[in-house]
Predict the structure.
Amino acid sequence: MTIIAKIAEYEISEADIAIDADQLNICKEHLIEAKIDSLNRLIDSFLLYQEACSLGIEASEEEFDEYFLQCLADFENKEQPLSIEEARNLELKITRKIVVGKYLTHLWKDSIEIDDQQLHAFYEEHKEVFTSVETVRASHVLVGKNTPHAKDRADSIRANIKGAEDFEQACAQCSDCPTCNQCGDLGYFRRGEITPAIEDMAFSMNVGDISPVFPSHHGYHILMLTDRKEPEPISFEEIKDKLKARLIALEREFFLQKHIQELRERHHSLIQILDKSYLKDL
């Protein structure tokens, strides 16, 4: 096992870094940067763990057992049982996560309070940001990609659609989509929430328009736009609770990063990077 870094008596191995980096699904081009970021996160975690232990914070058996059960799913498909070393590393990892979590709760025991007056001031200052997203509602007729002569069939159906009534009839009689029982209704959607081909067509149409035949990876579609909701301001009362939660989360994150930086400065002499290729940005 290759040890990359030490924080006091705690060791961070190359395997620890690989596991952390793999969880982020980073592409190979950015793997080196991802590993350095992972090492940074692990160093921060151990510094927080060390600080927690100095305050006498521990993981109870009940807390450990509960967290361990949550981890079992990760090992269901593992062909070989855990080695003694792997089991010990897992135990230490679970204990560290529990203890660090309890320490963060301790740090934030004096809750960051933001009153309605502060919230409203922030809302007014950034009012242009608080707008709803444009959404559209559409119905479609689908001729599935596995249908014989699918494009010709779709063209034939479209040729017989002169208006909304024809479209609804085509949905009920000709569509291969389960939505045919609801007149092909796809409901409201915003950009990025539906098949790109449908999205591009829907957002280019006016309410009441019926599209020409167009393809997607599902087959061939005919679309009718049934409604459009333009962006509009979100009232303070609508956004207040979410805004408060978000601002508190940001305040906590800022406080945590400041605290971690203080720990790094205070315990700088305890941090040893054994593999110099990881020294960038540390």
